[in-house]
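Q: What would this chain look like folded?
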Amino acid sequence: MRVRVAFLLIMAFALASVIRIVMLQNEDDRKWAKMAEEIDLQYRRVKATRGNIYSDNGSLLATSLPSYRVAFDPTIANDNIYKKGIDSLAWLLSYHFNDRSKSYYRRLIHDARLSKRQYIVLNRRLINYQEKKAMEKWPVFREGRLKGGVIFEKLDRRYRPFSYLGYRTIGFVNNNNDGAGIEYSFNEYLAGKDGRALYQKMAGGKWRPLYDGTEIRPVEGYDIHTTINVNLQDVTESALLKALEEHNAKYGCAIVMEVKTGEIKAISNLTKNEKYNDYREIFNYAVQGLTDPGSTFKLVSMMALLEDSNLKLSDSIDTGEGAYKYYNQTMRDHKPGGYGVISVRQAFEYSSNIAISKLVYNQFGSDPQRYIDYINSFGLSQPLGFQMIGEGIPKIKNPSDKSWSGVTLPWMSIGYEVELTPLQILAFYNAVANNGTLIRPVIVKSISRADEIINEFEIPQVIKRKICSEKTLKEVQSLLVGVVENGTARNIKNDYYKIAGKTGTAQKIINGRYTKKYNTSFVGYFPADNPKYSCIIVVDSPSGFRQYGSSVAAPVFKEIADKIYSLDLELHAPYVAEHKQPAGVFPVIRAGNLEDLQTICQELSIPARPATDSEWVKARVKDNAVLWTTDEIAPEIIPDVSGMTLRDAIFLLENQGLRVMYNGAGRIIAQSPKPGNKLKKGSRIVLRLG
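A: My prediction, written as structure tokens:
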């Protein structure tokens, strides 16, 4: 009985197994086939090519360059194509990548063909478009994807032609769609629209595209046109870096803006990297960094005083011996022993804490809300609505706040217990330069695809037509000039153009206590009599004995302003030629290479005689003929190229070691720096043609 039962159980198990096999092969076939397809085949995203970012003159700041991964399906090529080309293909791969032998590549491909592997990556190194075009002519590869089996997988790589110039401003976007700068703020436009394609999973977890006709092509991203000027960005970044290294500072930022338009021409943020002891763009202090503005805020206080009272700049104020007590806090001036009795103008020019705070406290102490209302009316209590994501929100206290105390008003009047970003402070000073019109800073002008403008931003964008009365405006403008002419920024005064601005030095609070570390700044505009550019410099925690805005930040402003002044010919007085050609039949032959000019005169039958055998000459008209005179070229002096053709000028100047920039057409009518200045090899010279 036991044997029979065991036999029946075995038979039942065997029968059940057969039935299950039949079911798997027939009834469940579709189910498992579908599951296998879902595992091995998948529609995957095909990333769109990201749009370009351009500077104000069309130079590329960021672009996507196509790179390619070289993959291969060794099973596709027929025996004839494969046998004829495999040896040459292996040699070319070895020669091009220069990392493995010919026999390695031949074995890699041949083993994959024998094992019927349909996808292998031939080399991890990506190739560029030119390399791809060359490879398409190689044996086997020349048959294409369908007959030869070559697969060029496109991968876009973000490229910055100017390397790390303006790195944080241009920004980035990572794989999680987080980022910073213009790349992140305008990602919606730059990213484009991704496509999709069918991919097959291969051994080792790789995916290869099938190109079965169902793929959806991606749509390229839009291009962004910025206001950034590459030359001014380079000048700004270099000057800031030099100062940070000299003072061993913690970080610094600089912004250069056009007064009338609000266009940001340069913006730099540099932070000290302790690990490598260098400076890098890590955080955008200019747009996001909220700090106590220090003495640069005294312009706000002075403007409020002039608007709210009959105060005259000639009125006097007693600052005592340099210390004044408000309740339980003592305020001090920087000058040991104090300034004594000084005028209101001197109080601002010397940046007296006691004078400014006493004036504000006497005028607004009984009603501090009135002082706050002026700050609001000047446009300082709200963000500017800047185009880049992450702008800091101003922190302006109100008398109703719990943190308001008896010392808040006097300390706020000199730039403490209030937090603003450098960009917000610059916009306020820019309004003073712009005859009282507060405009929104702009860094992106337009968005386009190819030559079609998709979105063009209004420039200038007016926030407030007038921040104060005309009388107050003229007085504060004169005060800002006075700071440089007679006050704390006398060290940046120069004879070529006037600067208007204000120094700032704010003690840093660490763990609730004021320390001997400072946040230094200078903000202003130039030329003061006809402002074209406004600029702010912030240098945080400088080391050494020079730790004030006048000796740390102001010289950076001056260096940037000087270089901009030399580059921007519109800031210079019109060039007047020393020797004008008299009216007559003579063509405008002014200067150039003697041999070339003699040839021209002979061809045109113009009487000409040399008064020198110098290679480079200038033309004079004497006795109805052209007279060539010497144009001496001293090795250490910038030569005079006025009157020359652009070709001659470039040849001469570049041989002297100068970098030439130019605008206009015709002959040279102006140059900057001017002739006769000391020549510094590698420096720029700007030519204007007309």
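The chain has a mean pLDDT of 87.
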